[in-house]
Amino acid sequence: MDKEKELVKNTAIITFGKICTQLVSFLLLPLYTAVLSTAEYGTVDLVITYSTLLLPFVTLALEQALFRFLIDVRDDKDKESSYISTTVFTSLLFTCIVFTILFLIYCITNNELFLYFGLVLVGSVMSAVSLQISRGLGDNVGYTLGSTVSAIVQILCNVLFLTIFKLGAPGMMLASFIGSILCGVVLFIRCNFKSYIYLSHIDKNAFHELARYSIPLIPNQLSWWALNASDKVIVQFVLGVAGNGLVAVANKFSGVYIQFSNIFNISWTESVALHINDDGAEQFISNTINLVFRLFLCACCGIIVCMPFAFPIMINEQYNEAYGLIPIFMLASLFNVVVSLYGVIYVAYKKTVEIAKTAIYAAMLNMVSHLVLIRFVGIYAAALSTMIGYGGMAIYRYFHSRKYITIKFDNITLFISVIMVTLSLSSYYSGAKTVQILAFLIIVILCFALNKDMIKKIYNIMQKRFGKVE
């Protein structure tokens, strides 16, 4: 199977499981914003934010290293078992220690947030490690199944806990825990983890190999946390928890968008890691990056021009202040897509120190710009600083990655992208429905023009298959 077909197949498998659950979760946003106040929604988001912050410390980011190293030893069961056992038991030890500390704090303070925080963290660790084992073993169907089960269970529990039991914010955190745990259970059974996990297979040398790769990823993941989540913390302290609720809702749209980038990135990372030394690898990577950028550019501008019509239908009016933030977060997510596309080059060459450096620079840029801007533009500083951070990181990686492989963006694509982004933003903030409808039509035409070659290719493939059926 050639590189392109392999990439398409893996992406299709993962996308199939993700797209429906993401869509359902997104469509439940009206329920969440109707049932929860901005303060409650902000509280849930902060608990998940802090658990994301603590996750790389608890696991030492070993699960990230595990995926990369399992790719290289897929024909060696003993090495697979050594890497998996070492990662699982190390993560289990640190998780037990951290949860015990949080439980003791809960007993002393009687603040239930610490208990729910501990549960969400435990679920996140189990889910993260299980999913990376599945990916590393090459079981993308299993990865999709685990992710899908987690999402469906979380959605069902949210509906049940919010509408029937009226649990409010604690119900959403409990749903997150249950969904993550079931993800781990499903993958444990499907991938037959018990045949890989043995106390006797814990290996000091395997730990050192994994740790050398993973330790630089801790500051990298902290930097990603700073880019994605520190804005919420700053908003909480300066503007209050309700302000964080507004940021969380505004981020929901770009969050769904970036999930599709993450879906692609799962198979993209594996594909580049497997084929980085093949003949024609540079051309393959360059073509793919340009193709994917065009698709996500169109999706970004398409969402922006649709939002003036969708926002009043989907979001409760108490969250109306979030409306102006959405396009800025969308542009930040587009830069994030570029960052991820280039990031796999570093992963393929195992340059985790370089990954960490670029992420740290971007995180510093994000936090400094946020602290400077928040006094002048208030809640808009969260979106603007995120866009500045991802934009700076995208530009840096574009030039820095040339040390390993030279990838260039198509000049015509870049020119059209400027036109599309300018048109989308100007129509969005104009507030004039006629202008917004006209902008929507123009964006649709430009999207077809920008992706005409891919559309023709898909049409020809479908036509050939239809002919075969006849």
Question: Your description of this structure?
Answer:
The protein has 470 residues and is mainly alpha-helical. The chain is 85% helix and 0% strand. It has helices at 3-27, 29-35, 38-59, 62-72, 77-109, 112-136, 140-164, 169-190, 204-214, 217-228, 230-239, 241-275, 281-314, 326-348, 352-377, 380-400, 411-430, 433-450, 452-469. Helix 4 crosses helix 9, helix 10 (217-228) runs parallel beside helix 15 (352-377) and helix 12 runs parallel beside helix 14. The two termini are 26 Å apart.
Give me the strand/helix succession.
HHHHHHHHHHHHHHHHHHH
Query: Which runs of at least 5 residues are low in confidence (pLDDT < 50)?
Result: none
In terms of quaternary structure, the protein is single chain
Strand content: under 5%
Radius of gyration: 22 Å
Determine the fraction of residues in helical runs and give it as a percent range.
Answer: over 70%
Number of helices: 19
Give the termini distance in whole angstroms.
26 Å
- Tell me, briefly, the overall form: globular
The total count of strands amounts to 0
Structural class: mainly alpha
Mean pLDDT across the residues is 85
User: The biggest beta sheet, please?
Assistant: none
Task: Describe the SSE topology.
Blueprint: H1 3-27, H2 29-35, H3 38-59, H4 62-72, H5 77-109, H6 112-136, H7 140-164, H8 169-190, H9 204-214, H10 217-228, H11 230-239, H12 241-275, H13 281-314, H14 326-348, H15 352-377, H16 380-400, H17 411-430, H18 433-450, H19 452-469
